[in-house]
Design a protein that fits this description.
- The chain is mostly beta strands and about 800 residues long.
- The protein is about 5% helix and about 45% strand.
- It has six helices and 71 strands.
- Strands 33, 65, 66, 67, 68 and 69 form a six-stranded mixed β-sheet that branches.
- A hairpin with a 4-residue loop joins strand 19 and strand 20.
């Protein structure tokens, strides 16, 4: 028995030795499905520095047998071979990632701080290593669920770059390899759906999420969230070289086509139902070069896109595939040709509709072009330098050669001015104390109603036009056009009203709509304030009667009559809103009202009329008429600006007082009685919000001609006071126009033709010096335009009387007090 035991022991020892010898001879073996690095690779910590020995040129294959595909733990006690080619190896052991070859002692490439799951994917000479920094179910420690780094296995060296992302390898449902170029596409579990991302090892850009043509960044919705182990390849791929050395690539899979503009963090798009057919480099006059793509959809229609972060559907224009075209911006293309200056322009809107171009041509004498610098062209005409701006040509409405040519401004002075915000306000005025209207309501609003309204109509960047009314024991609320009732602790939607809501734009956006409403039998009476009418509605909220009345703002039932408050008077109607009579709003005593100095009237928002003794001023939507000597005052709702960069203007004119908003003018006599309304609604494109011209709502009154000129967005309107009509006398879209000024029957204003000039000038002094400034002269008799140009960027202009013909022009550069 003892002899048999000794034989078994000896046999076991021999077997172990044989296995060990075979293992050492072969270099690697298999253990539980894992590839194990042989013992000779193990060295002490002193041997971790790379040697300078030469490394033979490797041959890197891309088959699954060359790398480890399964998930592994980074704290493996035994060396785990991740990749092998010839004598070169990458392996992980005890949270360390190593590289070694016969000519190079092992090098530590990365050390994980803790034991985490990891996985690798091989694409040509690039090995993508992802580790799960945060696993599903763990307490949230930040958005970075995954650590990613790329190893470039080339020329006997290893180059590594690290990335962090909200997903790790455990969220990757599928990985697809692009071969030209070598890129990784990851399908990633993202909540109940998935998103798609690209990583280009040759780029410094991190993982880029695929955008989806026509839908912005919507997630791909698909219930198939099963994980695929093996890395896939695309069915087809193509390359379109660009003049700057980059290329546009397309990759085709089972869903559709993916378009990738190399080394761009804006362009990786999946395009379903549309195919790229050609690409050309489109140089920009000011912004380098972009790729213009030519596409065909399933119906054979051809479209164009300037590839990048702002793609719009443009109808294919074959002319743009001819030579010498340059883009002014995403929508406008320019060319100097034998027929003159050519412009192909698409409407400036981001819309799913296909945009159709317009073509215009501006003739210039051949051979007269002297210089071309960005959007500005210099010509030599009759021994004089004349200029043309592509912006002026493209965006001036009904442009004629006379309106476009620029001449050098012959005489001007320049100075630096310290700009202070206080200069926009008048000196303090003593008036009966003013208060803000916090809520449009007829009773104290319960806190629970506030919460219910906020829950259904939450305030964000946009604030709803809210009007609260307590009628009997029930609260009603209008939020923009929606009528609601609050019953039993719950806000219920009754329906949508046929009313008008405008939006005031400032730092945020606020709705302006119905100022008052009341119930009548089983119907409603609504003050449709912004539409200047009163509506009678039935129980289904249908209009059964209406009355035109300027800006109605308060309603009151008095038996069988309805009292409607408007400018300085009340209009009385029957219950079918048919007018019966009018009554002037009386002035009320201010003897018991507290007086206070108000310091913040904008210029022209306050006017003291020596003839009538009335002081006129505007505050928070209301117009005030105050007689200090008599201690009397009346006030009524007047309305708000659409553009909060503008301010109300109160203008004396003959026997009238004109009150000007940015979309209408109201006319009163000197005693404060309303006479007439003139509407001039804002038009698109408009300058509201980030491109508002500096001179917004400035004005010039030409009393000799009975004309008032006002700057509204990208146009100047001329108001014929005698005829009470308005016309556009100048329009240039996306131009930054300054304050309107007058000299000898001509309007003068400063203009920067590129709407983004002001932002560039604020951020870059060198750019400010390279820019140019225009001065526009507009004849108030015939509306003829003459333009002048000055080198450099100026912020504002002053006029002085130098002669009968031309004013002395002073151009200002704003400096902050700190400088």
């Amino acid at each position: 028995m003892e002899r048999k035991i000794r034989l078994y022991v000896m046999a076991a020892v021999v077997a172990v030795l044989v296995v060990g010898v075979l293992w050492l001879m072969n270099g690697v073996g298999k253990d539980n499905g894992r590839t194990i690095v042989s013992t000779p690779l193990e060295t002490s910590s002193e041997d971790l520095t790379a040697t300078s020995a030469a490394t033979p040129e490797p041959t890197v294959a891309a088959t699954p047998d060359d790398y480890y595909e399964d998930e592994f733990m980074t704290d493996t006690e035994e060396p785990l071979l991740l990749w092998k080619a010839d004598d070169r190896k990458l392996y992980v052991e005890k949270r360390q990632l190593y590289y070694s070859s016969e000519a190079t002692e092992r090098q530590p490439l990365y050390e994980w701080e803790s034991a985490v799951p990891a996985q690798v994917w091989l694409n040509g000479e690039y090995l993508l290593v992802g580790s799960q920094a945060q696993q599903e179910g763990e307490e949230d420690a930040g958005w970075q669920r995954g650590e990613w780094f790329i190893l470039q296995l080339k020329d006997g060296t290893v180059h590594r770059s690290k990335r962090e992302m909200f997903f790790g390898p455990q969220e990757v449902l599928a990985m697809t390899a692009g071969t030209e170029p070598r890129v990784f596409f990851a399908k990633v579990k993202n909540g109940e759906s998935y998103s798609e991302h690209l990583l280009d090892p040759t780029s410094d850009v991190d993982w880029v999420r695929l955008l989806y043509y026509g839908e912005g960044t919507r997630p791909v919705v698909n219930t198939d969230l099963n994980k695929e182990k093996a890395m896939k390849s695309f069915r087809d791929s193509r390359a379109y070289p660009l003049s700057d050395g980059r290329a546009v690539y397309t990759f085709v899979d089972d869903i559709g086509e993916i378009t990738y503009l190399q080394h761009s963090d804006y362009l990786v798009r999946r395009r379903d139902g549309i195919q790229l057919t050609d690409v050309k480099s489109m140089p920009f006059l000011e912004e380098g070069t972009r790729a213009l793509g030519r596409f065909r959809n399933e119906t054979g229609e051809e479209l164009m896109f300037l590839l990048g972060h702002n793609e719009v559907n443009m109808r294919m224009e074959p002319k743009l595939w001819e030579q010498d075209w340059k883009a002014l911006n995403d929508y406008t293309f320019t060319r100097i040709s034998s027929v003159g200056l050519e412009v192909i322009q698409y409407p400036e809107q981001f819309d799913l509709e296909v945009l159709t171009p317009q073509y215009k041509r501006f003739p210039v004498p051949e051979g007269s072009l002297a210089a071309e610098e960005g959007p500005l062209l210099t010509y030599q005409l009759n021994g004089e330098k004349r200029y043309v701006s592509w912006y002026d040509l493209a965006y001036t409405e009904q442009a004629t050669p006379q309106m476009i040519w620029l001449s050098a401004l012959p005489d001007y002075a320049a100075k630096e001015v310290i700009y202070t915000y206080e200069a926009d306000f008048m000196d303090a005025k003593q008036v009966p104390q003013l208060t803000f209207e916090e809520n449009n309501t007829n009773a104290a609003i319960p806190e629970e109603l506030y919460r219910a309204v906020e829950e259904l109509y939450p305030t964000s960047d946009y604030g709803f036009a809210k009007t609260y009314r307590k009628i009997g024991e029930i609260w009603y609320v209008i939020a923009d056009k929606m009528l609601n009732a609050y019953r039993n602790g719950k806000l219920e939607v009754i329906g949508e009203l046929p009313v008008t809501v405008i939006t005031s734009v400032g730092e945020g956006f606020g709705g302006r709509g119905v100022r008052d409403f009341l119930t009548l039998n089983d119907g409603w009476i609504i003050a449709d304030t912004e539409a200047s009418r009163v509506l009678k509605l039935n129980g289904d909220l249908e209009i059964v009667a209406e009355l035109a009345i300027p800006t109605p703002y308060r309603l009151k039932l008095q038996g069988d009559e309805l009292q409607i408050a408007t400018f300085g008077k009340s209009v009385y109607t029957n219950l079918n809103v048919e007018p019966l009579r009018e009554q002037a709003q009386p002035f009320a005593s201010t003897a018991k009202l507290k007086k206070a100095e108000h310091e913040y009237f904008w210029r022209d928002e306050y006017y003291e009329d020596a003839e009538s003794g009335l002081s006129w001023y505007y505050f928070d939507g209301y117009l005030y008429q105050y007689h200090a000597k008599r201690q009397q005052m009346r006030t009524f709702f007047f309305g708000y600006m659409e553009n909060f960069q503008a301010h109300v203007r109160i203008i004396p004119y003959g026997d009238e007082v004109l009150v000007l908003l940015d979309r209408r003018m109201e006319r009163f006599d000197r005693q404060g009685n309303w006479r007439q309304t003139l509407l001039f609604p804002r038009v698109e494109p408009d300058g509201i919000y980030d491109r508002t011209p500096r001179g917004e709502n400035s004005y010039v009154l030409n009393e000799r001609n009975g004309m008032l000129y006002s700057l509204q967005g990208f146009r100047i309107v001329g108001i014929d006071i005698a005829q009470n009509k308005v016309e556009t006398v100048f329009r240039q879209s996306y131009a930054d126009m300054g304050e309107l000024m007058a000299h000898n029957n001509s309007l003068y204003f400063m203009l920067h033709s590129n709407g983004n000039d002001r932002y560039t000038a604020m951020s870059d002094q060198a750019a400010r010096e390279k820019m140019h400034t225009e001065i526009v002269k507009l004849d108030m008799e015939n509306h003829q335009v003459q333009r002048y140009i000055v080198d450099g960027y100026y912020d504002a202009m002053e006029l002085g009387a130098a002669s009968d013909k031309e004013p002395a022009i002073v151009l200002n550069i704003y400096k902050s007090p700190a400088n």
